């Protein structure tokens, strides 16, 4: 028997619609549909998602927007604001990465986490999940549903069972009891056609499938038949395929008062670059994409990204790019409320081995290591590059 695993599947609730309801309190408790313009029922295109209030009218993702309009003309219809949702998604992922590096991103709002090795830091596996949910709630204002189970498939199913704001735990000894009564369509990747074939064989639940002779299933479905039988019997050894590239490291700061003072803003950017690059070095990572985030007075938020020719973890390299992005940003006399620096496209920082490596670079690396050490000993604000300010 292989080692017990604790797999978590986290999925944000009604993601795009929940972000819109969070940002506009007037939308809370109302049917909200995010997607194409309904044009009073003549619109083309589809629903991206809708709030749980709208789901009561039978509206769902991928439904033609004209049908959604006919089902609930008084719903609030909003366009997709991908930039905004991506930003929230980054925040959610950052929270998840505080719990474990073993994360498999599935989409903009869902991920698998393997907390087997890390959950002891936070309590029991269930307590860890509850902490993940409450961190997401307190830091983004949004709810997520989570499933905790010994396998990926069970974790994915579990996260969906008590949506929204759900938490379902499947203890290792309960896996088969958990799966048995569920409809076969719950099996990952099992489509309508396979469901129909299985139904015709008298197989409706996962339990029905588990009892069948696997060879009979292989005769009909080929090697997928064996996999189906295994999944139905709780055999699912698939691991988390961690995607380090999806991770990003960022820091941001909100000014006490909105400011147009370029010196103040660039000092903050220097400080943020120091912070981000120090975190990169702590985690032995380097990043290729540098993103500047600017929120102007009135809350409009912009991001500007740039790709470096080589992954970096030095303050200077990151700041040089951020400074350029900031200088190119048309402020047009507007005041800035918040600035942020993000580094993504991460790769492991391989220790330098080449004896003929650029001596200056090695020296710079040593300097950074020394600075990191001082900060660790004496605190974040102990040492700063000239021009950076403590905020
Ligand atoms: P989902 O997680 O499938 O849906 P959801 O978060 O809106 O609702 P649930 O509570 O059931 O998880 O998808 C995440 C986001 O992806 C969703 O908010 C909008 C987008 N999306 C589309 O744009 N088109 C689609 O067909 C689907 C399924 C999702
Ligand atoms: Mg979701």
Polypeptide structure, described:
- It is a single chain.
- With 391 residues, the chain is of the alpha+beta class.
- The chain has four domains: 99 residues, Alpha-Beta Plaits (2-Layer Sandwich), CATH 3.30.70; 68 residues, MutS, DNA mismatch repair protein, domain I, CATH 3.40.1170; 53 residues, DNA polymerase, domain 1 (Orthogonal Bundle); 136 residues, DNA polymerase, Y-family, little finger domain (Dna Ligase, domain 1, 2-Layer Sandwich).
- Helices cover 40% and strands 21% of the residues.
- The strands form three sheets. The chain has a five-stranded mixed beta sheet.
- Thymidine-5'-triphosphate binds next to strand 1, helix 1 and strand 3.
Q: What labels describe this entry?
A:
391 residues, single chain, Alpha-Beta Plaits, four-stranded antiparallel beta sheet, five-stranded mixed beta sheet, DNA polymerase, domain 1, MutS, DNA mismatch repair protein, domain I, binds magnesium ion, alpha+beta, binds thymidine-5'-triphosphate, disordered C terminus
Question: What's the gist of this structure?
Answer:
The protein has helices spanning 15-23, 52-55, 65-71, 82-97, 125-140, 152-161, 175-179, 192-200, 206-211, 214-221, 223-232, 262-282, 315-328, 359-378; strands spanning 7-12, 32-35, 47-50, 76-78, 103-105, 110-114, 144-149, 167-169, 249-259, 285-296, 301-312, 336-348.
Give me the side-by-side strand order of the main sheet. 5-6-1-7-8
CATH class of the largest domain: Alpha Beta
Structural class: alpha+beta
**Could you describe the largest sheet, including whether it forms a barrel?**
5 strands, mixed
DSSP helix fraction? 25-40%
Domain count: the total is 4
**How many DSSP E strands?**
12
H and E string: EHEEHHEHEEHEHEHHHHHEHEEHEH
> Might you state the CATH topology name of the largest domain?
Dna Ligase, domain 1
Radius of gyration computed on alpha carbons: 25 Å
- SS element count, helices: 14
What is the averaged pLDDT score? Answer: 90
Give every kind of bound small molecule, once each: thymidine-5'-triphosphate, magnesium ion
> Which band does the percent of strand residues land in?
15-25%
The end-to-end span amounts to 53 Å
* Uncertain ranges: 352-356, 387-391
């Amino acid at each position: 028997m292989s080692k017990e695993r604790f797999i978590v599947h986290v999925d944000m609730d009604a993601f795009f619609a929940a972000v819109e309801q969070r940002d506009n309190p007037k939308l809370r408790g109302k049917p909200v549909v995010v997607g194409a313009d309904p044009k009073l029922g003549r619109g083309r295109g589809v629903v991206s998602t809708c709030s749980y209030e709208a789901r009561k009218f039978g509206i769902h993702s991928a439904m033609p927007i004209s049908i959604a309009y006919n089902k609930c003309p008084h719903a609030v219809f909003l366009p997709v604001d991908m930039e905004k949702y991506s930003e929230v998604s980054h925040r959610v992922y950052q929270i998840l990465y505080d719990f474990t590096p073993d994360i498999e991103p599935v989409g903009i709002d869902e991920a698998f986490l393997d907390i087997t090795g890390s959950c002891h830091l936070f309590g029991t596996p269930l307590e860890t999940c509850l902490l993940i949910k409450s961190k997401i709630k307190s830091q983004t204002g949004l709810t997520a549903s989570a499933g905790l189970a010994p396998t990926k498939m069970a974790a994915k199913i579990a996260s969906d069972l008590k949506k929204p704001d759900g938490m379902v735990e499947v203890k290792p000894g309960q896996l088969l009891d958990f799966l048995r009564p569920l409809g076969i369509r719950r099996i990952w990747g099992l489509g309508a056609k396979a469901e129909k074939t299985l139904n015709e064989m008298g197989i409706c639940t996962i339990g029905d499938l588990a009892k069948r002779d696997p060879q009979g299933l292989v005769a009909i479905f080929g090697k997928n038949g064996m996999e189906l039988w295994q999944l139905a019997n709780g055999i699912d050894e698939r691991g988390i395929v961690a995607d380090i590239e999806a991770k990003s490291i960022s820091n941001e700061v909100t000014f006490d008062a909105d400011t147009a003072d370029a010196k103040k803003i660039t000092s903050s950017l220097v400080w943020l670059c120091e912070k981000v690059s120090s975190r990169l070095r702590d985690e032995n990572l380097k990043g290729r994409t540098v993103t500047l985030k600017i929120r102007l007075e009135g809350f409009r938020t912009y991001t500007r990204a740039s790709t470096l020719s080589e992954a970096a973890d030095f303050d200077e390299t990151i700041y040089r790019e951020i400074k350029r992005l900031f200088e190119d940003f048309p402020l047009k006399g507007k005041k800035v409320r918040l600035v942020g620096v993000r580094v993504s496209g991460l790769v492991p920082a391989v220790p330098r081995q080449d004896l003929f490596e650029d001596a200056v670079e090695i020296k710079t690396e040593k300097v950074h290591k020394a600075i990191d050490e001082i900060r660790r000993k004496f605190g974040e604000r102990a040492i700063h590059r000239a021009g950076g300010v403590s905020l």
